[in-house]
Amino acid sequence: MINQDEKFMLEAIAEARKAEKLDEVPIGAVLVHDGRIIARAHNLRESEQNATAHAELLAIDQACRETGSWRLEDTTLYVTLEPCPMCSGAIILSRVKRVVYGASDPKGGCAGTLMNLLQDSRFNHQCEVVKGVLAEECGSMLSSFFQKIRDRKKQEKKLKLQALEIDLQ
Question: What reactions does this protein catalyze (predicted)?
Answer without folding.
Answer: adenosine(34) in tRNA + H2O + H(+) = inosine(34) in tRNA + NH4(+)
